[in-house]
Amino acid sequence: MNLLLFIGAVFFAFWLIAGGTKNFTYQQNKRKFSYEEAVYIVSLLAKITKSDGRVSAKEANLVSQILTDITNALNGSNTTRENLKRVFNAQKMDLSNTFKLALEYKIKFNLSEVECMQKIYSLLNIVYVDGEITDDEIKIITKIADGFSINQDILKQIISSFDRSFTNKNAKENSKKSPYEILGVDKNTDFNDIKKAYRELAKKYHPDILMGKGENDEAVQNGTKKLQEINEAYESLKKIHKQ
């Protein structure tokens, strides 16, 4: 059985909003999602997005959406979001404590092997929003995996699977589409409506939301590729409307 299909079968939602409430829970142990845990997640997010020395526009858009999602899952407070943003900005400045941070997170919340694997999977979805993974990003994801006690051979297989999935990210059928077609708008659409269309599509294809719906590995990776296409289209139209 394909390794990732197996992992996909046992993964539970990273971002699961239970019963229409704003409380994140884990399907496995029903642990309530807390601000303290959010700090660990945002910190690891900062490490992986800054690992190659920069945060691209596509990564920045995705990070912003994730911070908003986490905030809404906690209490929806602007203060909470600003605090998490400060955590992100502080943690991205120092990558030396990555292993220690992952280990602390695992121990403090008694993360299971499945939970740890799921975190790695979510972080890789963020890494691949640019369509590839750099050597520096591999080093950081490896440190996180070490902190989570994840077998390195398994990690390599997961990364290889992502690489294969994104080999054809610039397939002809996608390259022929205009940014307007990708976002489902026309050239006369007001930019505020373009932004609204972008946000709706980004939420629809957000890999963590797909995982929360119980979608399989293939659907999540396809969603990540689609999100990359959506981000590129939005960035293109944003530049046009600034002219």
From TrEMBL:
InterPro entries: Apopto_cytoskel_mod (IPR051938), DjlA_N (IPR007791), DnaJ_domain (IPR001623), J_dom_sf (IPR036869), TerB-like (IPR029024)
Keywords, in A-Z order: Chaperone
Keyword Chaperone on entry: yes
PANTHER family named among the record's database cross-references: DNAJ HOMOLOG SUBFAMILY A MEMBER 3, MITOCHONDRIAL (PTHR44145)
Protein name listed in UniProt: DnaJ domain-containing protein
Species: Campylobacter sputorum subsp. sputorum
Lineage, highest ranks first: Bacteria, Pseudomonadati, Campylobacterota, Epsilonproteobacteria, Campylobacterales
Originating gene: djlA
